[in-house]
Write a structure and sequence with these properties.
Blueprint: E1 2-7, H1 15-22, E2 28-31, E3 40-44, E4 47-51, E5 64-67, E6 72-73, H2 75-87, E7 94-98, E8 102-103, H3 106-119, H4 131-139, H5 152-174, H6 181-195, E9 199-200, H7 202-211, E10 216-219, H8 243-250, E11 257-265, E12 268-270, H9 282-291, E13 307-309, E14 311-312, H10 313-323, E15 327-331, E16 341-350, E17 353-355, H11 361-364, E18 368-375, H12 392-405, E19 409-413, E20 421-423
Parallel strand pairs: 1-10, 1-11, 2-5, 2-10, 5-7, 6-8, 7-9, 11-15, 14-16, 15-19
Antiparallel strand pairs: 3-4, 12-13, 16-17, 16-18, 19-20
Helix pairs in contact: 3-4, 5-6
The protein binds guanosine-5'-diphosphate (GDP).
Guanosine-5'-diphosphate binds next to helix 1 and strand 3.
Binding site for GTP: 11-17, 39-41, 306, 332-334, 413-415
Enzyme class: ligase
Function: Plays an important role in the de novo pathway of purine nucleotide biosynthesis. Catalyzes the first committed step in the biosynthesis of AMP from IMP.
């Protein structure tokens, strides 16, 4: 059977920790979308790691870690991550890479940078990892699948054609150095060496694993708000962040995804531009940012300070629904212990109309938060393992949000470690 771990919000909800925790009982962990533009932070016995490409199961020796066909595969980043974890004492993980995964090419990263430069103040706040140019090429059918590395003649030919087209833009739009197909070819040959031992038919492997009764985790990146269809377009990412896309991006039957665990953080945070209705500013924001996550709310990939705000029930209810949530994991609750009272955004006011339905982007830009304020619990809740042992106001906070979002909170994370978790019956 398959479980998916996905985000309800803007990413950074703590999916890495939940995946790492669930991976203790899983056989296979699959990344099915996105690229090295976002990261998961994981704290375990080996130390603290920021993973961008490797699935969060790489720290166990009983799991197989898979890069599915839906991923934007950055081969040098993957190699660097493998080297990094193994140099810190983690045993070499079992990794498989889909022969249909496409590669982030060196020019995708350049185009991402050049386009952000060109846009200046109108930019999307890209992490400049090449993700948007990568997916543009994928859907324009000019991308490169990993299996193409093994067919030298056709690869050479295709690179020549690609450079011809790219060079027109480089010369006339961006005024930057031109690409040379032969240099690219040589680089790709070094990439081939890096991935050759891992490349296989992943969907066939997963099909067989399912027949054998193996447990598979699909690990999502970012969250519902960043989905190109259902999120805050155009301030979204370029591949679907939804559990449903897991079937496509891993190559598994949709009906096998039995559990969809949607992760949502006890307050909000976001990176990059875009509407953020319950955003906080000034000292209040600075304090939450400093105390947030595990060592502050700063991007795992970029180190950028994250925007922070109060919990948004409108966005989260929608975010959970669009994921097809069966279980909610409510994370980073321990951080809120310093507050006397905690505002929660329960509705949006759009031009005087109050709504709890998440609107399209134009209306979202106009939305003002409607808050209800709950009393804080004013104590440390890390270390607590039973729901009944949480302070009453803390339980009330959880139950209030559960009621507003309409999906059962069955896991509560009260610290970054694997064991900092409280399970709750549905
Ligand atoms: P992801 O991309 O969804 O995996 O989220 P990130 O890894 O970017 O952000 C989550 C951050 O919060 C990481 O630094 C985690 O170690 C940390 N974290 C996860 N769960 C908890 C929790 O319950 N409490 C605290 N204090 N930190 C947590």
């Amino acid at each position: 059977m398959i479980k998916a771990v996905v985000g309800a919000n803007w990413g950074d909800e703590g999916k890495g920790k939940i995946t790492d925790m669930l991976a203790q009982k899983a056989d296979i962990i699959v990344r099915f979308q996105g690229g090295a533009n976002a990261g998961h932070t994981i704290v375990n016995n080996y130390g603290k790691f920021a993973l961008h490409t490797l699935p969060s199961g790489v720290f166990y020796d009983h799991t197989t870690s898979i890069i599915g066909n839906g991923v934007a595969l950055n081969i040098p980043v993957l190699k660097k991550e493998v080297d990094d974890i193994t140099s810190k004492g983690v045993p070499m993980p079992k990794i498989l890479i889909s022969d249909r995964a496409q590669m982030v090419m060196p020019y995708h990263i350049l185009f991402d940078q050049y386009e952000e430069e060109r846009l200046g103040g109108r930019s999307f706040g890209s992490t400049k990892s090449g993700i948007a140019p990568f997916y543009s090429d994928k859907y324009a059918k000019t991308g490169f699948q990993v299996n193409e590395l093994f067919h030298e003649e056709t690869l050479r030919e295709k690179l020549k054609n690609t450079c011809e087209v790219k060079n027109v833009l480089l010369e006339h739009l961006y005024h930057k150095p031109l690409l040379d197909p032969e240099t690219l070819f040589e680089e790709l040959m070094t990439w081939r060496e890096m991935v050759a031992p891992f490349v296989c038919d992943v969907s066939a492997y997963l099909w067989k694993a399912l027949k054998e009764g193996k447990e598979i985790l699909l690990e999502g990146q970012l969250g519902s708000m960043k989905d190109p269809d259902h999120g805050i377009y155009p301030m979204v990412t370029s591949s679907s962040t939804l559990a449903g896309y897991g079937a496509v991006g891993a190559g598994v039957p949709p009906y096998e995804i039995k559990e969809i665990i949607t992760v949502t953080k006890a307050y909000s945070s976001a990176v990059g531009a875009g509407a953020f209705v319950s955003e906080l500013f000034g000292d209040e924001a600075e304090e939450l940012r400093r105390r947030g996550g595990d060592g502050g709310e700063y991007g795992a990939t970029t180190g950028r300070p994250r925007r922070v705000g109060w919990y948004d029930c409108v966005a989260s209810r929608y975010g959970c629904r669009i994921q097809g949530t069966t279980d909610v994991a409510f994370t980073v609750l321990d951080v809120l212990g310093y507050l006397d009272e905690i505002p929660v955004c329960v509705a949006y006011d759009i031009d005087g109309e109050i709504t709890t339905e998440f609107p399209t982007t134009g209306l979202l830009e106009k939305a003002r938060p409607v808050y209800e304020t709950l009393p804080g619990w004013k104590c440390e809740i890390r270390g607590i393992r039973k729901y009944e042992d949480l302070p009453e106001n803390c339980r009330k906070y959880i139950e209030f949000i559960e009621e507003k979002i309409g999906f059962p909170i069955t896991m509560i994370s009260n610290g970054p470690g694997r064991d900092d978790i409280i399970y709750r019956e549905k």
